[in-house]
Design a protein that fits this description.
The chain is an alpha+beta fold. It has 14 helices and 15 strands. The protein folds into three domains: 276 residues, Bira Bifunctional Protein, Domain 2 (BirA Bifunctional Protein, domain 2, 2-Layer Sandwich), CATH 3.30.930; 34 residues, no CATH class; 86 residues, 2-Layer Sandwich (Alpha-Beta Plaits). β1 and β2 form a beta hairpin. Bound molecules: phenylalanine. The site of phenylalanine (PHE) has 12 residues, from β9, β10 and β11.
């Protein structure tokens, strides 16, 4: 493909062999639904913010968590992956899972991409709200753009053990072994208290949002940047939906700046103090080292929560595409709402399912390097919000030729009118044509 320029939020980037963002996706960058007054995602954001503002304070009785809600979703691969210790061969790095602008920049796949930067800047409690981008399947609870809130909180030894009656023998760190319950550098008591802090913070949030009635469960999981790690699932329409991931931050993330760099910063910061006491150079470095230890002497937890899924559960919104609806039948139900007032979305007023779906199947032979996500993404790119679901309904390998054939069922449905058979056929043919040209499939 020839090199081109693409412009995102006023900055221009050169495309290269890694570029896989599409115009339909770039259209969404800057929409900032979470900042749009009266939008259900904004209502939910306000509720979460308030919850943290009203329940957590620093020692000067100011809100503990600072909020960032307008950081650009264009990040470097370092921010999205390396700064979080994501291994080179992790699937999230693949072209079929993330949206790349080029080999250096991408659309963030999670708000965790900013975690390292904010911790480095000295923050010890923050929330980040933002749009995130992932290549995924097409159905009622997946959309390639969604919104997350990230939360992180660091504790010093003193802070973590402040509620313990006699904390004299309690330490945050030890040189031990990595176990299912803790990292090698953490003591068991620190890890356990952190787990308790983290889970109760999130359970309190869930109880505030949903009242006591919500069915939830904790599931142990893996993230490259936390250990131990958990997911919280909630029951929605009879199914367990994963709504958040969390865990104890890998200690390496809190101290990943080089010692030399930290010394320089600290010597600089304490220059006035040092020159006042006329301490010579060797002592300056020694002193800086002591401070350095102090600077990384914290332990942290983090969580990342998907706003759409939570809003769907909270407001009874049956399809994730509705968040992008410009239709007044949808938005007017939330506009002017007090964020605290319980709202239930009424299907009748904005009938997602009132217009009947058009279902078309497409079968093709797939080439060797075919990825299912590529096909889902292609359909989304051709049909935008007019596709409700793409589902693999048959996967078959020819016993002799060993060629593999797949059949996808595509559910087309407009949210504001009924499609005619002809309109759907035009889209369906376009999907078949582009799949042939771009993904190298052979229609059967
Ligand atoms: N970033 C993770 C995700 O998007 C969620 C997460 C955030 C997990 C913070 C652990 C800590 O799935």
């Amino acid at each position: 493909k020839p090199e081109q320029n693409i412009t995102v939020l006023g900055n221009t980037y050169k495309t290269d062999s890694w570029t896989n963002v599409r115009p339909k996706i770039l259209e969404k960058v800057g929409k900032n639904l979470h900042l749009k007054k009266g939008h259900p995602l904004n209502l939910l954001k306000t509720r979460i913010e308030k919850h943290f503002y009203e329940n957590y304070f620093n020692r000067w009785r100011n809100p503990l968590f600072s909020v960032y809600d307008n950081i650009s979703p264009v990040v470097t691969l370092e921010q999205n992956f390396d700064s979080l210790l994501v291994p080179e061969d992790h699937i999230s790095r693949s072209l079929s899972d993330s949206y790349y602008i080029n080999t250096k920049y991408m659309l963030r796949a999670h708000t965790s991409a900013h975690e390292h930067d904010l911790i480095k800047s000295g923050l010890d409690a923050f929330l980040i709200f933002g749009d995130v981008y992932r290549r995924d399947h097409v159905d009622a609870s997946h959309y390639p753009v969604f919104h997350q809130v990230e939360g992180a909180r660091l504790f010093t030894e003193h802070q973590l053990f402040s509620k313990v009656r006699d904390p004299t023998n309690l330490k945050l760190f030890e040189e031990g072994r990595r176990e299912p319950t803790k990292q090698e550098s953490h003591t068991l008591e620190a890890a356990k208290l952190m787990e308790f802090e983290l889970k109760s913070t999130l359970e309190n949030l869930a109880a505030d949002l949903f009242g006591k009635g919500l069915e939830t469960k904790w599931v142990e999981t893996y993230f490259p940047f936390t250990h131990p790690s958990w997911e919280l699932e909630v029951k929605f329409q009879g199914e367990w939906l994963e709504v958040l991931g969390c865990g104890i931050l890998e200690q390496q993330i809190l101290k990943s700046e080089s010692i030399v760099k930290q010394c320089v910063t600290l010597i600089y910061r304490h220059k006035i103090f040092i020159s006042y006491f006329k301490i010579d150079c060797v002592w300056q470095v020694a002193l800086a080292m002591c401070y350095t230890a102090g600077a990384v002497d914290s332990i942290g937890w983090a969580f990342g929560l998907g706003l759409e899924r939570l809003a769907m559960t909270l407001y009874d919104i049956p399809d994730i595409r509705l968040f992008w609806s410009e239709d007044s039948g949808f938005l007017s139900q939330f506009e002017g709402s007090d964020h605290l007032k319980p709202i239930k979305y009424k299907e009748g007023a904005h009938p997602v399912s009132k217009f009947s779906p058009c279902i078309n199947d497409l079968s093709f032979w797939i080439p060797e390097n075919f990825s299912e996500n590529d096909f889902h993404d292609l359909v989304r790119n051709v049909c935008g919000e007019y596709v409700e679901q793409v589902k693999l309904i048959d996967d078959f390998k020819h016993p002799k030729t060993k060629r593999q054939s797949q059949c996808y069922r595509i559910v087309y449905r407009h949210m504001e009118k009924s499609f005619t058979k002809e309109e759907v056929n035009v889209m369906h043919e376009k999907v078949a044509k582009l799949a042939t040209e771009e993904l190298g499939v052979e229609i059967r």
